[in-house]
Specification:
Layout lengths: L1 H22 L7 H23 L3 H4 L2 H24 L4 H12 L3 H13 L4 H27 L5 H13 L2 H15 L3
Length: 187
């Protein structure tokens, strides 16, 4: 239990410090948005690239775990999405709520926690679950958000616009580039 506390406590301490800094006006109104941009555009993509680029196919191909974790994450996403849509919310807000429900913090908490508790073997389930969350749940959510933001009513052009937006998203790109790097054998 001490090991878990040592890993998780700093994360929650940082959240508390951020909350206190905002409450005491040490951080500006846009601080949370800017920190989120840093996480989404730099930190998480770098982590996903590194972990994916250093993984082997045999390490990540566990069909039972993939099916169990993927089904759970997608079920939470879909149930929340449908519930919010039926409650009168738009596609964008409902997709964000679905993502929040189906998202497991497998990247920043799962990877270090599994590595510390189980050693190198602990990276396998953490990596698999992170890839499912980012490549599947995030991608579906981002696609629905982009569709919801579209003012273009011609389906072909809307698909192109959504495709371009997804092709620019670092959370979708970084694990794919990492996988390509791993397949290249460059090390």
């Amino acid at each position: 239990m001490h090991t878990i506390f040592v890993i998780v406590a700093p994360i929650f301490a940082l959240i508390l410090v951020g909350y206190l800094c905002r409450k005491t006006n040490k951080l500006g109104d846009k601080a949370a948005a800017e920190i989120n941009k840093m996480v989404v555009w730099l930190c998480l993509p770098a982590l996903l690239f590194k972990v994916t680029a250093t993984a082997t196919w045999s390490e990540i191909w566990h069909p039972g775990f993939i099916a169990a974790f993927g089904t759970g994450a997608l079920a939470m996403f879909v149930v929340t999405l449908l519930w919010r849509l039926n409650s009168g919310h738009g596609l964008v807000a409902s997709s964000i709520d679905g993502l929040s429900a189906g998202y497991a913090n497998t990247g920043y908490i799962g990877i270090p926690l599994c590595l510390l508790l189980f050693g190198q073997a602990g990276l396998q389930p953490a990596l698999i679950s992170s890839l499912i969350v980012v490549c599947l749940v995030f991608a579906i959510s981002l696609t629905l958000i982009e569709v919801g933001l579209q003012e273009e009513r011609h389906i072909g052009r809307a698909v192109v616009v959504v495709g371009k937006a997804l092709a620019k998203n670092p959370l979708v790109i970084s694990p794919l580039v990492g996988a390509g790097w791993a397949m290249s054998g460059l090390g």
